Each structure stands twice: as C-alpha cells, then as structure tokens.
C-alpha cells in the first residue's frame, strides 16, 4: 500500500480547515469577520412537533440556538418520511417553509409561515397537497434536490428514496428511474448538485463510506467510489451542508445513543478525500424520531451543494 507522507497529510488537513470551517470570501460579506460554517437540523418528535437546532463547527461543535416549534405540525405518529425543509425569510417577519412529508402511506408537499419567533405557526398559513400513495414503511432514505442555474432559475428538482436496496429517483412529471444494487447502504445524504449529476455520501452496514454520483441523463449509470473502509456503520442519519466553495460539513446521528458527531469533509476525491472529525456536538438533542436538513433557499446558484 502506498503511504502518504506525514508532511503531505498535515498540509492536506490544514488546507481542509481553511477551506471548510470558514466560508470563502465570496460567501462572507465584505467588512465582516469570517463566519464559522454551520448547519441546521430539523427533528420531528413522536408528537409531531418540529425542533430546529443550529450547529456551528466550533471546537467542540455546539448548538448555538434552537427553535422549538411549531408544535403539532405533523400528524402524531402517522407520518413515515421527512425530507429537507427549505426556508425563506418573510417580508414582515418569520419564515416561509416548504418540504415533503408522508402521512400514513401518502406523500404530500406542504407550505407554512412562522411568526417572528420562527417557532409559532401563523394561523391559516399551513397548506398541504397530496402527491400520491404507496409510500410504505421500509424506506431508509428520503429527500429532494434543487438545482439553480447561474440566472437564478430552478432547472431541476428530483426526489429520491432508498427502498429494499433500490435507489428511486422521481424527476419532472414524477417520472421514475430505478437504480438497483444498494442493498448494503444504511443511509445517505446529498452533498452535490451540478448541471450534469447529483452526488450522495452513503454509509454501509459494514462500516465503509462511499460517494454515489447519479448522472442526470436518462441513461444514467451510478458512479460509486470508496471514501473510507470502516467505522461509519453507527450512523442512522447523515446530514450535509455546504461550507465554502467546494467542501461539506457533515453531521452523523447515532440513534442508539441519541448523539451527533460533526465532520469537515473536503471536496470528494475517493479515498484521497480528507475527513476531519470535529467531535461530538454539545448541547444537542437528537431524541426525535426523524431528522432532516433545514436550509436557506437562496433562490440562486449560490445555494447549490458543491461537495463533489
């Protein structure tokens, strides 16, 4: 096995910290101090409440603030899958929020608005539209993707689900394409959306970590690359957020201990990908029954995930 010189490894780790833990200059307003990279995770309680925790890549990583609510947003114990929540600031106060969720065996899109506390539902604002049925138990991953072109137009939105070792992708008009061969995948998270492909980071039941690149073309064949060979089997949920111009902040949630661990991940490059463990997230509560990314929908290409 070819070994990487210690000096080269240290240089790579230093470059990673510079690139990932602090956003690029383009992402930081002029005249302000560089902000620490962060991500937000939404958790649904057994009673259907939403909790949003904001986690910063400090040392050790910590929860900087929490929004408890809205309460009773989702039906009590009746939903099965919970996808990423897109947020936009409301003109007066509060947030607009959108996402996908299943109630019983049907998939719904939803929208609502919060008040200025971000924790209370504005009366009459909740809207829910049924998309279709057949969303049964057994799916171990579910989420959607958005891709904006440089003109600020959404040119693509896909929905993904992992079910019995098959990755399902629904594109415009709910056209479905199946990608078999993923029976060993425990869970996954989206880390990159580009004009020609979307990439996931997936952990396997045996402990390895892989990237799965799915081309957008109709004749797509997944490109799977190993990243690590062991120790990643403990996470039931992975949540990723962009950090800087080409890197990823990764949260792994272990439901056996209800704890989360944060990692800085360089631009995906197979086994040469640099991953730095930042530690256990302090002040966090991961006792919810489902967790998903909560992100700011920038409405332009600056919001595209860029980890691969």
TrEMBL record:
Record has Signal as a keyword: yes
Annotated signal sequence range: 1-18
UniProt superkingdom: Bacteria
Keyword Signal: yes
Keywords: Signal
Official protein name in the record: Tachylectin
Species per Swiss-Prot/TrEMBL record: Kribbella capetownensis
